Amino acid sequence: MTVGPGHERRVRVTVTGRVQGVWYRAWTAEEARDLGLDGWVRNRSNGSVEAVLAGSRKDVNTMLLLLKEGPPLAVVETVVCESFRGEVERGFAQRPTL
């Protein structure tokens, strides 16, 4: 099932730094599920991590703050956030590397 405009906030995020091979993707999925967000996360072949987050404004904002810290072994350099207008499936998934 997909979710349309019912979410208060939907964003696409790109995170750079040491964010692959440090449990960042799995950690992101776990944190997003704990917040009740919908969306997905995946590694990119350029070494970044990309995610789509959808949910209440408060929960998406909380997740954005968490992404700036990351799990203990990560070293986050940048978090770039942009509005996302696409469809978002219910639940939060880890997708394969693109």
Describe it.
It is built from two helices and seven strands. With 98 residues, it is an alpha+beta fold. The chain has a single domain (2-87), classed as Alpha-Beta Plaits (2-Layer Sandwich). The strands form two sheets. The chain has a five-stranded mixed beta sheet with strand order 5-2-4-3-7, covered by helices on one side. Strands 1-6 form a two-stranded antiparallel sheet. A hairpin with a 5-residue loop joins strand 3 (38-43) and strand 4 (49-55). Helix 1 runs antiparallel to helix 2 (57-69). The longest helix is centred in the middle third of the chain and has 13 residues, at 57-69. The radius of gyration is 12 Å and the shape is globular. The two termini are 23 Å apart. The model has no long low-confidence stretch (mean pLDDT 94).
Question: Could you write a compact summary of the structure shown?
Answer:
The chain has helices spanning 24-35, 57-69; strands at residues 2-3, 9-18, 38-43, 49-55, 75-83, 88-89, 92-94.
Structural class: alpha+beta
CATH class: Alpha Beta
Main sheet: strands, sense, barrel: 5 strands, mixed
Task: Please tell me the overall pLDDT.
Answer: 94
Give the SSE order as H and E letters. Answer: EEHEEHEEE
What is the share of helical residues?
A: 25-40%
Coarse shape: globular
β-strand percent reads 35-45%
Strand order of the largest sheet: 5-2-4-3-7
Question: Rg from C-alpha positions?
Answer: 12 Å
Q: Tell me the domain tally.
A: 1
* End-to-end CA span: 23 Å
- The DSSP helix count reads 2
> So, CATH architecture?
2-Layer Sandwich
CATH fold-level label: Alpha-Beta Plaits
Secondary structure: number of strands: 7
Low-pLDDT regions: none
